[in-house]
Specification:
- By secondary structure, the protein is α+β, with helices and mostly antiparallel strands.
- The chain has a domain at 36-51 and 59-156: NADH Oxidase (3-Layer(aba) Sandwich).
- The protein is 42% helix and 17% strand.
- The chain has helices spanning 11-24, 39-49, 69-84, 90-99, 117-141, 156-162, and strands spanning 2-3, 6-7, 61-67, 105-111, 143-148, 169-178.
- The strands form 2 sheets. The chain has a 4-stranded antiparallel β-sheet. A two-stranded antiparallel sheet has the order 1-2.
- Strand 1 and strand 2 form a beta hairpin.
- It is globular and about 55 Å long.
- The protein starts with a strand and ends in a 20-residue tail after the last strand.
- The relative contact order is 0.20.
- Its cofactor is FMN.
- Belongs to the nitroreductase family.
- It comes from Ilumatobacter coccineus (strain NBRC 103263 / KCTC 29153 / YM16-304).
- This is Putative oxidoreductase.
- GO terms for molecular function: oxidoreductase activity.
Length: 198
Amino acid sequence: MTDAFGTMEDGDSRYEWFAHLVRQRRTSMFVDPDREVDPAMVQELCGLATWAPNHKKTWPWRFAYFTGDGRARLGETMVADMIEADFGDEVKREKTRTKYLRTPGILVVGCEPHENDTLHHENRDAVAAGIQNLLLGATALGLASFWSTPALLQPPRVLDLCGFGADDRVIGVIYLGWEDRPCPPPERPPLPITLVTH
């Protein structure tokens, strides 16, 4: 019996396939600007995100996908929130106004709050873990991706535009597009690991 990783009984083959996928993931916007990313495919990737660990099964993730003119609308809306919050200078605001046009698709990933402080923080952890699932899935499909932090974590107009709750937080703005050139991997520093045996 086989699956996408190789032989089901062959643990090494499955691990090597997964390790290769992880090492192939790049943060880049080297994309074909004219090739759309199908919303159905993005919905599939969002589904992968929901398989991330979620301690108390709070299901905190929120998603909104922007394509076409919707990307410009997202930029304009974010700038309106920045002006309202007196955040950033005119140069930063103008950059924000147009930057979501850099890839064919923009996925906004949000997180629901929780009244329990520990679960509130764990919700963010679950969403961040979910984003990694999503990014790995995108890599497997041949998509380039870039996880960016929004100008504001709780921009009210953007939250409303996304269909999120007023108290939700934006954890990431993910740029998506079909990769059109390779992106060399950055060097990784040595990894110190503390080993305690007794």
